[in-house]
Design a protein that fits this description.
Elements (H helix, E strand, L loop, with lengths): L9 H10 L17 E3 L2 E3 L3 E3 L15 H11 L5 E8 L11 E2 L5 H19 L4 E7 L20 H4 L12 H5 L1 H14 L4 E4 L6 H5 L13 H4 L1 H13 L5 E9 L21 H13 L4 E6 L6 H4 L13 H18 L4 E4 L9 H10 L5 E4 L1 H5 L3 H8 L13 H7 L11 H9 L3
Parallel strand pairs: 3-4, 3-11, 4-5, 4-6, 6-7, 7-8, 8-9, 9-10, 10-11
Antiparallel strand pairs: 1-2
Bound molecules: flavin mononucleotide.
Flavin mononucleotide binds next to β4, α14 and α16.
């Protein structure tokens, strides 16, 4: 079923999609990517954005360090109209690794200096500064503040824990959860002080807020009914909004579909966890957009630990994905497009374009043209080829030899406790990969 990437032209990509019975939005013209977009009083210069990509290279105190600066300076020169900064912890115990960024009074100045540098570089090169969003997170089940797992969970999940359930001491109590909105609010306030344009209350990839959306078996205020399961997200968004100026954007990167069995997965059908059922996802979007007034949401699906092919289709890596990567692309487009269609006034960022390498701009343009999303977000491509957006917009094409090859090595670095970057295209990380013995 699975085939490696070998397409030499857009026609070959189209033919492969047709052979599989898929309807990927692919556009020959990239013109739509050059269109500006109005968003909450800002005008975005184009439809290309960089998705949050963790480098695991902050200081021990959680401030951007040398490699963090290098990465965002490269992103500043990408030409993308929006940079969604990687996961930044709101509490130390919720850091996913000892070098994860952490927003607190002691790190805010370093973030401010970084943001000033990013704006100035982009303005010099392109004549505009990208919108800067801080992704605020609690890593929950995947917390590793000292480098070894220290999970803090919403509820046990046999699908993820197998026959070794996590101890009940890992389950955050209702009081623990009730303390978090204030921490997200503080981090949002500090993000504004640090010069970001907005903050994301991260609710994806099964980190804490995302996990809570499926804690159907949890008793109490944060489990059971959907109203309870989305209570913490609601409270964090409300607290963050109350903590910042009216012009500061509060947004959310949201998992629409987890791709594992009900009742443990969110956005999944009760019959088969692998089939999306977006009825609850749409209710969360209704909460965020219609009730709480968020104008922009960044949609994603899957879990990078247990089903990475769903989150970021690839064809090289530790295990062979169980489906053709085009099917993964189609699932992502279908999920994002269905929700965008249900909320036409919402501005939506779509994910997972990098797999198509030199043709990923054609998928991005097709998705925007067809109304799947308003903005196309690139993750791994930004590590491999930071100037991808400028090349798409100015030259109308990507150089094949600079594209991400979806090999999974950036993730392998991260999982091995290293700093993440492109092992294939960036010699610094080729060395890091070798040094870690990978
Ligand atoms: C090394 C690595 C780090 C990532 N870090 C984050 C992160 O901090 N926050 C987040 O929401 N997603 C993160 N992601 C997911 C990406 O934002 C993106 O959704 C995914 O890579 C699929 O998009 P792509 O096909 O363009 O790479 C990460 C992915 C990778 C490979």
């Amino acid at each position: 079923m699975h085939e490696r990437f070998h397409y030499a032209s857009l026609d070959e990509v189209r033919a492969e999609a047709a052979r599989l019975g898929l309807d990927l939005p692919l556009s020959q013209s990239l013109d739509v990517l050059r269109q500006p977009l109005d968003l909450s009083g800002h005008t975005l210069a184009n439809r290309l954005t960089i998705q949050p990509m963790e480098g695991c290279d902050g200081t021990a105190a959680g401030a951007p360090d040398e490699l963090t600066q290098r990465r965002y300076e490269r992103f500043a020169l990408s030409g993308a109209s929006l940079l969604w900064f990687e996961a930044i912890a709101v509490v130390p115990e919720g850091r996913a690794n000892p070098r994860q960024l952490y927003m607190h009074a002691g790190s805010v100045d370093a973030f401010r200096a970084l943001n000033e540098r990013v704006r100035s570089l982009a303005e010099q090169r392109f004549g505009f500064a990208p919108l800067l969003i801080a992704q605020l997170t609690h890593s929950g089940r995947y917390s590793k503040p000292e480098g070894k797992p220290a999970p803090l969970i919403g509820w046990n999940n046999p699908y993820l824990e197998g026959d070794k359930p996590l101890a009940s001491s890992c389950i955050l109590s209702d009081d623990d959860l009730a303390a978090l909105p204030e921490r997200f609010a503080q981090a949002a306030r500090l993000s504004e002080r640090a010069g970001f344009d907005g903050a994301d209350i991260k609710c994806c990839h099964r980190y804490l807020l995302s996990e809570l959306l499926s804690c159907r078996e949890r008793p109490g205020r944060y489990g059971g009914s959907l109203e309870n399961r989305m209570r913490l997200l609601r409270e964090c968004v409300q607290a963050a909004k109350a903590a910042v100026s009216p012009g500061f954007l509060i947004t959310c990167r949201l998992n629409l579909h987890d791709h594992f069995p009900y009742p443990y997965g969110f956005g999944v059908s009760q019959e088969s966890g692998e089939e999306p059922d977006l009825s609850e996802s749409k209710r969360v979007v209704s909460l965020l957009h219609e009730e709480l007034g968020l104008e922009l949401l960044d949609f994603t699906i899957g879990n990078p630990y247990s089903n990475p092919h769903v989150n970021r289709p690839y064809d090289l890596g530790a295990y062979r994905p169980p489906e053709h990567p085009f099917q993964g692309l189609q699932r992502m487009m279908d999920c994002v497009g269905q929700v965008k269609a249900a909320f036409p006034s919402l501005k939506v960022i779509g994910s997972a374009f990098s797999y198509l390498r030199q043709f990923s701009g054609n998928l991005a343009a097709g998705a925007v043209e067809r109304g799947v999303c308003d903005l196309a977000g690139f993750g791994r491509m930004a590590f491999a080829y930071p100037q991808f957006a400028a090349d798409l917009l100015e030259k109308g094409a990507l150089e094949k030899g600079r594209c991400c090859v979806a090999c999974g090595k950036c993730t392998a670095l991260m999982r091995a406790g290293g700093m993440a970057g492109c092992v294939v295209r960036d010699p610094l990380y080729t060395r890091e990969y070798k040094q870690l013995g990978l």
